[in-house]
Amino acid sequence: GENVEQHPSTLSVQEGDSAVIKCTYSDSASNYFPWYKQELGKRPQLIIDIRSNVGEKKDQRIAVTLNKTAKHFSLHITETQPEDSAVYFCAASKPSGGGGNKLTFGTGTQLKVEL
Amino acid sequence: DTEVTQTPKHLVMGMTNKKSLKCEQHMGHRAMYWYKQKAKKPPELMFVYSYEKLSINESVPSRFSPECPNSSLLNLHLHALQPEDSALYLCASSQAEGQQFFGPGTRLTVL
C-alpha cells in the first residue's frame, strides 16, 4: 500500500519567516495531494491541494510543489503568523475503485510560529 | 450547508456497552469515510462508503460496524470495545475523488 513520509516532525520559526514541510510518497498511482491543518482539539481542515497533472499551486501565503518523478511534494508558507501554529498533515490519495478516494496521511509536522 | 456534523461530541462507554456514532452531511457528496485518530498521530482510514455501499474496509475489527442508511448519513456501531479503541473518530465526505471535508469528530473513551 501507499506509504507517506513527512519531515520535519517539529518546526519552529520566527514570525515573518518562511516554513517548508516536505513529504514523499511511494505509490505512483497516487494522483491527488492535499495538505491539512489541524489545530488542537479541532478537525483537520484543507489548506491547499494539488493534482498530479500540476507542478505547483499557490494561494496567497501558501504554495505547494509536486515532483512526480521523485515522488515528493512540499508545502511552503511565507510570512508566517502566530495563527499558523498547528499540526500540518500531508496526504497522498488515489481513487478507491468504487468511488471516493483513499487518503494516506503523513505523520504530521508541529509548526510553532514564535513572536 | 457546507459542513459535516457528528454526534455525540464526547462518548464514554464500558467494554460491554453498545453505542453508535452518527455523521451527517448535506453537500450532496456520494462518498463518506470513517477515520480513527489517536493523540499526536495522523488520521487512519477505517471505512469508505461510495453511493451508500461499502467500498473499503481497512481490516477493521468486527467490533466496529459501519452503516450508511442513506446518502446523507453514516453511522458507526460500537460493541465490546477495548480501552485501546479510545480515540477521536472522524467522519469525512467528498464528491467522488475530490477534497474530503472532515467533521469535528467524536472523542471516545472506553473504560
The coarse overall form of chain B would be globular
Q: Biggest interface in this structure?
A: A-B, 25 and 29 residues
Shape of chain A: globular
The proportion of residues forming helix of chain B, as a percent range, comes to: under 10%
Proportion of beta-strand residues of chain A: over 45%
What is the H/E string of chain B? EEEEEEEEEEE
Strand content of chain B: over 45%
Mind describing the biggest β-sheet of chain B?
7 strands, mixed
What profile does the largest beta sheet of chain A have? Answer: 6 strands, mixed
Number of strand segments of chain B: 11
Note the total helix count of chain B: 0
**Counted beta strands of chain A:** 11
Description:
By secondary structure, chain A is mainly beta. Helix content of chain A is 0%, strand content 58%. Chain A is built from no helices and 11 strands. Chain A has strands at residues 4-7, 10-14, 19-25, 32-38, 45-51, 56-59, 62-67, 72-77, 86-95, 101-105, 109-114. In chain A, strands 2, 4, 5, 9, 10 and 11 form a 6-stranded mixed sheet that branches. Chain A has a 5-stranded antiparallel sheet with strand order 1-3-8-7-6, with no helix packed on it. Chain A is globular and about 45 Å long. The model of chain A has no long low-confidence stretch (mean pLDDT 94). Helices cover 0% and strands 59% of the residues of chain B. Chain B has no helices and 11 strands. In chain B, a hairpin with a 5-residue loop joins strand 9 (87-94) and strand 10 (100-102). Chain B is globular and about 35 Å long. The mean pLDDT of chain B is 94. The interface between A and B is medium-sized, with 25 and 29 residues.
Q: What is the fold's blueprint, element by element?
A:
The complex is a heterodimer of chains A (115) and B (111).
Chain A: E1 4-7, E2 10-14, E3 19-25, E4 32-38, E5 45-51, E6 56-59, E7 62-67, E8 72-77, E9 86-95, E10 101-105, E11 109-114
Parallel strand pairs in A: 2-11
Antiparallel strand pairs in A: 1-3, 3-8, 4-5, 4-9, 6-7, 7-8, 9-10, 9-11
Chain B: E1 4-7, E2 10-13, E3 18-25, E4 31-37, E5 44-50, E6 53-57, E7 64-70, E8 73-79, E9 87-94, E10 100-102, E11 106-110
Parallel strand pairs in B: 2-11
Antiparallel strand pairs in B: 1-3, 3-8, 4-5, 4-9, 5-6, 7-8, 9-10, 9-11
